[in-house]
Structures are given as structure tokens and as C-alpha cells.
Amino acid sequence: MVAQSDAQIHSYIRGKVLVCVLVGVLTALSLWACSVELWLVFGLLAFWLNFVPNVGTVVAVALPLPLVILDPAFSTAGVLLVLLLPLGAHAFAGNVVEPLLFGHILKLHPVAVLLSLLFWYALWGITGMVLAVPMTAVARIRLAHVKHPLPRYLAALLGSAPGEQTLTLSDAPEGEAYGGDAERGEAEADSQLARNALGRKAAANMQAGSRKKAALEELEPALDDTPHGRE
């Protein structure tokens, strides 16, 4: 279980970095093709901002616009290209590349993404916003691999999307109420030991009753020979 979750976490980190590199390269090349100054700087910013979903895309796309809008050398078509080409790079990475790499493993609920951004921004500032979604996704993977209904329920809350069926605590298999197969096996073993102990106790009581009955039968002739017994 731990090895599988660790493998998914490492796969996510590598895949996310590659997606961000792709977005940064595509953004830089598109801006270079449009003859935008500081195209390399905007490409690096697009790389870092791609770690922040939604908000990072808006900021990365909007950053070059003041330069081209205020530059008389750019026509309306040029401004539109500077806007649409980086936006297309982000959309391609978010809607095509990431689902192909990660599937549904790292699908996070929009509310969970927003809350994670707010929490980590309040804790670590801009660095927290950049790392918020990766850390939330890693936490979801870890919770989903814990064989207990409560962590899996929390993972479902973090990862369920609108229209998906949300797991509840009652949906967990009966064996997982004890924490998984190992705990269920221990519970069954304890139950078997208890039954064996009760069986041994019942057998001992039966043997004691048999010995008591035999002793009484041996004492009956002696009691009959006493004067009180003859009367």
C-alpha cells in the first residue's frame, strides 16, 4: 500500500513538473514568435504559475498584455495572438496533457482547490499558493490508500468532481470498518480464541459436575449404613 501510494506521488510530481515545463516552453515560443520583449521572463513565470490552477493561468496570460497594448508596433491582431496563444498552451496542458498523464487519480474538487490555495497562501504566501495543489493532491493519494473508511471518505471529498458519486462512511466494505484485512483477521482470531476459551470452560464445568455426581453416588451406601439412614 505504501509503495503504491509513493509511486503515485512520485509519478505526479514528475508529471506535474513536465507539464509546467511544457507550458513554459510553449508560452515563451509563442511570445517570441510574436516579437514580445521579455519573452523568456514570461515563459519562466508561466512555468511557475502553472502550479497554481485557474489563478495562475489568468495571471500568466495577463502579464504580457500591458507591454503589447501600450506598444504602438502591435496591431489588434497581434494583441489577440499574444492573448490567445499562451491561453491555448495552458488550456492544452490542463485539459489534454494532464488527464492523459494522471487520469482521475488527482482530480480535485474545485472547492478543495480554492480552500487549499487560501490555506497555504495564508501560511506560506506565494510559495504556499504554488505548492498548495501538489501538496493537496499528495495528501489525497495518501488518504485514498489508507485502509480505513474515514481517510477514504476524506479523499473522496477532496477528489470528487461535480456529478460524481461521493463516498460515505457507510459505503466502506464491512471488513474495512476494522481497518482492513489485517485488522479483520486479528478480530476473527480473537473471536476464535474467545470461543475456544468458552468451550474449554464448559468442558471443565461438565467434568467437575461428573466428578461431583460420582462422589455423591459413592457416599450414598455409606449414608444408608448409618443409624439415621437405617431409620
Describe the structure.
The longest helix has 45 residues, at 181-225. The protein starts with a helix and ends with a helix. The chain has 10 helices and no strands. Residues 161-182 have low confidence and may be disordered. The chain has 3 domains: 1-103, no CATH class; 105-168, no CATH class; 181-230. With 231 residues, the chain is an all-alpha fold. It has helices spanning 2-33, 39-49, 55-62, 65-70, 76-102, 110-124, 126-144, 149-159, 181-225, 227-230. It is rod-shaped, with a radius of gyration of 35 Å.
Beta content:
under 5%
Radius of gyration: 35 Å
Question: Which sequence of SSEs, written as H and E, runs from N to C?
Answer: HHHHHHHHHH
Give the termini distance in whole angstroms.
83 Å
Which percent range fits the helix content?
over 70%
Indicate the overall shape: rod-shaped
**Largest sheet data:** none
Counting H and I runs of at least 4 residues, what is the number of helices?
10
Structural class: mainly alpha
How does the SSE layout of this entry go?
Layout: H1 2-33, H2 39-49, H3 55-62, H4 65-70, H5 76-102, H6 110-124, H7 126-144, H8 149-159, H9 181-225, H10 227-230
Helix pairs in contact: 1-2, 1-5, 1-7, 2-3, 3-5, 6-7, 7-8
Précis, in short:
Helices cover 77% and strands 0% of the residues.
Question: Which terms summarize this structure?
Answer:
231 residues, mainly alpha, 3 domains, 10 helices, 0% strand, rod-shaped
